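Quick one: structure for this chain?
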Amino acid sequence: MEPRDNVVDLRFYLGVLRRRAWVVAAATVVVAALAFGVSLTQSEVYEAGADVLIGRQASDQVFVIGQGYDPRRNVQTEVQILRSRTVSDAASEAVGAPVSVRIVADDESDVVRVIARSSAPSFAARDANAYAKAYVDYRLDSTVQRLIEAGDEVTTKIAEIDAQIAALPATSTRRAPLEDQRAYLVEQQGRLEVSANLADAGGAAVLAEADVPVAPVEPKPLRNALLGAILGLLLGVGIAFLLEYLDDTVKDHTALERILGPGLPVLTEIPSLGGRRQKVESPLVVVDEPTSPAAEAIGMLRTSLLFQMLDGQVTSYQVTSALPGEGKTTVVANLAASLAGAGKRVAVVDLDLRRPRLNLYFGLANRVGVTSVLVGEVSVRDAIRPVAGLDGLFVMSSGPVPANPAEIMASGRLAELLGVLKAPIDVMIVDSPPVLAVSDAMALARIVDATILVARAGQSSRRAIQRAVSSLRQVNAPIVGAVLNDVSSDAGGYGYGYGYAPDRAPAANGSDSRRRDPATPQR
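Got it. Here's what it folds into:
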């Protein structure tokens, strides 16, 4: 079960990115362009570097003989000296302006690079060289001073030993050790004098002076634009998922299944017309375009209902939606035509007494219908009419819009009428008002055998669907599933690229003589 959940989650994430691709693309382009534009407004910066070789000081070579020497620790110590305020002040005094550098040390060598930046190429080279020279001079001065102090100390110790030797008898055994010690100190004194006179006594030297740079290192518009594009891409993905989180509409069948809950499947997904250049004139696509993906989706719904009808317990369906404009009437008309095409005797009843439109899908007038039968003006036989070109399909429109639709829905006479209509046919499809708009659908739920809920992808609200399902369950409505209408190919569904127009009906002509023949589409 877990791998399946992972696949569903991956499809959800990919679907979000497909639907919000414009957000991701816009954020990427805007941030990249902004980074590029800002880079063009920045001043040019030049960089120059001088290499300094760090070695052992002459004083260390004199006094640390035989002791361990750690080159890495020595370099780290000298880096800290390079970064000291003493060296910085000396370099600034030398050039007559504040000098700021960056020290880069290599753990594998004794070479340290002094890097300076400036808006002028010559100033960058000047500052780097001045800083390197200030450090070398500091090392030399401090080393020479240390050697002089050490020489004075050695001279004092030699004088003390001479005094001790002079106080001893010529035959004393203590004279020999003192004389050996004096000889060693004299040797060290000579080495100190030689080291103090060496030019590299400081143990540091400028290995390579900084050259005047010919090209700036900053700004880099292309690099900044690339970094901006990466940042914009991440920002765009974040915004896309934020918008998806704030968007309360249903996008695909997976989201609709989660809202419906266990036991309520999505019976089919009907694709939209968004990807077609040439739109059909009628939404009855099962007749006009029987091989289209939309017709195939209706066929899937028909097959599902035929399986439910095998035991004979379900013969009447109510098709409703949470709110108006979600395509329920289009689903009713096409489903009825598809069932009739499968050889079933189908009665279609328009019980949306407030906004009747079913008759328009079949080119019928609405002078007589359900309300006409209920008030006794016409008989059932006169109110129900066959559809030319579709054998077995009969339509009863709503009739004149009544002043009290709610009372009609709750009346016993309506239940009797539907019972009469169900007797000679195989299946009855009822087009009812939206659940949340009025209470008619909940009243009809007690009369019909099953209820189908229609939702429109990208428009139907999750909360509205949840409220509709909850309202139907409160009256124990037998909900068999839902239909997701107007699905875009970007929604991660079955990949349909087109379908039929949602709730677009041809204009009524007010006459039964212009009744639409489904076998001969009107032009």
